[in-house]
Amino acid sequence: MDLKEKLVAAFIAFENRDHIDIDSSVHDIRYKAIGNFENKGFPTKKDEEWKYTSLKPVLKYDYSIFPSIENNIELQEVKKYFLHEIESYKIVFVDGVYSSFLSTTTHEEADICLLSAALKKPKYKIIIDHYFDKAADNADSITSLNTAFAKEGAFIHIPKNTILEKPIQLLFFSTGKETEMMLNPRNLIIVGENSHVQIFERHQSLSENVVLTNSVTEIFAHKRAIINYYKVQNDNKNASLIDHTYIKQKDNSIASVNTFSFGGKLTRNNITVFHEGENLTTNLNGVTIIGDKQHVDNHTLIHHQKENGESFELYKGIYDGTATGVFNGKVIVDPEAQKTNAFQQNDNILIGKRSSINAKPQLEIFADDVKCSHGCTIGELDDKAMFYLQSRGIPEKEAKALLLFAFGNEVIEKIKIPALKSRIIKLIAEKLNVEMGFEM
């Protein structure tokens, strides 16, 4: 039995485990999703969107779908992965199971809790039925797989006119108690009119065992909402992540997603944004620093559907060893989306002799009154800049790191949480194997 057949068979067992949503539309959505996954299976390199990313290396394992036992971990074991320097709300999962001990949730100024709990409460049923699976694209079979097994994840509902002072941390740990584990977390985030939230997300393995995480996050930004979302990906060499983020924006909203990819065997980031209002802004930024045989694929799609929308994309990549990067950014401008301003830039440095990057920026414009541009650069470190720094007494290793750090700093400067900015700088210094005695 291959992995696809195992997952389809496991779906029946999953449905029988907890009858948490029999009277909810989510129940029917799951059945349709597993049917779609069964028909399509996993994508291959024959699919245009997966042309440069093969899933074969991560699909050969006999994954456990459900943890055989509930695994508990102590705070000291994982404290370094939290933004522990600041006060925050926390929703923490261990091997796909909610950890109340490590979490700090609330129902006071906002609903910040777990999806499975919300599915059981009539109070939230109307909200979930209205939003769940309304942004996700189940034409994508991997998203359908997540939808079929969607039960556990974060449920965040920020009511209108609420500025959340404390950020929200979403942390997903895998202990390695299962030799080969697959996780399917599902997050639903609704931000009301005139509301503001900052969210930090991290998936982290605590062992060298194989883990595959297939994560889906749906975000709904209502009028004048502001969302700053940060993803930190710095996992071990046997951890793979397929991460889907779907965003729907209304008038005058601002949604920013910043992705920092530093580790993992295979990482695929899919970010899809729908502009359903006017005068709104989308910011997508990313920094990738990988080596060895690591692979990071950033796929973005921004669909401008209304007038006066803006979108800005800036992705930087540094590749060492035999690492491979992919950037595929698409911007679609509908005929009704006049006066759209869309900018897309992807810059890459190859410092490994066998490293590579496959870049494919795309524009599909069906309106005539727009400002749209895209660009891509691929190169090596500037020898003249290296010579200049070394002539000023800076050793070669530090000079190289300084230039690479400056290369990615434009994205780092967009981080609005000081504690997170410091953390990212330290992670970059570790990746570059130097000590940074300053912050830029």
Low-pLDDT ranges? none
Adjacency order of strands in the biggest sheet: 2-1-5-8-10-12-14-16-18-20
Whole-number mean pLDDT: 93
Order of helices and strands: HHHHEEEHHHEEEEEEEEEEEEEEEEEHHH
> What is the CA–CA distance across the termini?
52 Å
Rg, Å, rounded: 21 Å
Q: DSSP strand (E) fraction?
A: 35-45%
Main structural class: alpha/beta
Tally of structural domains: 2
Number of separate helices: 10
Main sheet properties: 10 strands, mixed
How would you sum up the global shape? globular
How many E-type strands? 20
Instruction: Please give the share of residues in helix.
Output: 10-25%
Protein model, in words:
With 440 residues, the protein is of the alpha/beta class. It has two domains: 275 residues, no CATH class; 60 residues, no CATH class. It is 24% helix and 38% strand. It is built from ten helices and 20 strands. The strands form two sheets. A ten-stranded mixed sheet has the order 2-1-5-8-10-12-14-16-18-20, with helices on one face. A hairpin with a 2-residue loop joins strand 1 and strand 2. Helix 2 packs across helix 7 and helix 8 crosses helix 9. 46% of the residues are buried. The model has no long low-confidence stretch (mean pLDDT 93).
